[in-house]
Write a structure and sequence with these properties.
Blueprint: H1 7-17, E1 26-29, E2 41-43, H2 44-47, H3 62-65, E3 72-77, E4 83-88, H4 120-128
Antiparallel strand pairs: 1-2, 1-3, 3-4
């Protein structure tokens, strides 16, 4: 990600890289194990006018939030289902000519289904039976 991108941009790329729909609220928190006890955070709710403890994600620039190599934040997506993604700052790197950002550097494992494995077609088939 570009250093001047916002946390909103980072969340969008992260969520969409898992083929999830960006259709729920989210926040970034410094307490990875228990986000409710975070001392620092950024929340989409603040951007939409809710009175929150933490500032919003749309104006928070990556370069201002991430300060040290290996720094991690929890990206909590969908407060109902609570999808947890850990994002980590690995440092500054040069962008090669012709290289576009954002860039996924590594991927492994099986992508989970955002909606728990339910397929719309299967639901409709069951209704027709």
């Amino acid at each position: 990600m570009a250093a001047d991108a916002s946390l909103y941009d980072l969340a969008a790329v992260t969520i969409e890289s898992f083929d999830f729909d960006l259709d729920h609220a989210f926040g970034f928190y410094d307490n990875i194990k228990n986000w409710t006890r975070s001392e620092k955070g950024y929340e989409l709710f603040a951007d939409i006018g809710e009175k929150m403890e933490f500032p919003g994600v749309k104006r928070a620039k990556i370069s201002k939030v991430f300060h040290t190599s290996k720094q991690k934040l929890l990206l909590l997506f969908d407060y109902g289902d609570e999808w947890h993604f850990i994002v980590q700052y690995l440092g500054v790197t040069e962008v090669k000519p012709g290289q576009k950002l954002p860039l996924i550097m590594e991927s492994s494992g099986v992508v989970p289904n955002q909606y728990g494995g339910f397929e719309e077609e299967e639901e409709y088939e069951d209704e027709d039976s």
